[in-house]
Amino acid sequence: MTTRHTLLVLGHPRTDSLTAQVAAHLHARLKDAGGTVDVLDLYAEGFDPRMTPADEPDWEDREKRYSPEVHAHMERILAADDILIVFPVWWFAPPAIVKGWIDRVWNYGFAYGRSTPRLAGKRMLWLGLAAGSAADFEKDGLGASMDTQLRAGIAQYCGIAGAAVALLHGTELSGVPEELRPERVRTILASAEAALDAHLD
Ligand SMILES: Cc1cc2nc3c(=O)[nH]c(=O)nc-3n(C[C@H](O)[C@H](O)[C@H](O)COP(=O)(O)O)c2cc1C
Questions:
Q1: What CATH number did the domain enclosing 144 receive?
Q2: What separation in Å is there between the alpha carbon of 88 and the centre of ligand 1?
């Protein structure tokens, strides 16, 4: 890994969640590799995912000045070489707080709506933790639809060509006997590292 600056976005309400553990593990790994990391824990920072009139796009003015909060988030995105979003899969999608961050911050004139996209050249990895198995996600094309929505519908639409979606399966530990959990967690963290290495190394 090179010395890159990563914006690590976390979208889970519990600090002791497996999702938070995966984010912390990857944070440490990125730093060990000599990179710098800006952790954006959306819940901890109290991000409000609800759209406001101030942050709604004005289709006739792509230079619109949005709220100061949104512009601060835009600066954090611009500063990043890589964007890593770690989230639990809820209803085969990222949680509302992550969706609201995209809705409000990845705005017209900033993330899209220019002939030269400002986010072009960045890399992006959506890393989701899912209770279901890979086979569950093959049914009805649910995994493919997540890939299409997040990689093509958001990242690629915003000019980020090298984006990827990776899912860690079987991450709900409540049904796993206590003595087997540490090994399961180790396996999940190793899969998370592999996804990071494959897409943001
Ligand atoms: C509201 C909600 C919706 C969920 N939807 C899905 C889903 O669509 N597919 C899936 O595989 N797991 C789903 N799950 C399970 C989570 O992905 C699972 O709990 C997660 O792996 C656990 O990680 P955590 O300990 O960090 O919360 C859902 C969980 C919640 C709370």
A1: 3.40.50.360
A2: 6
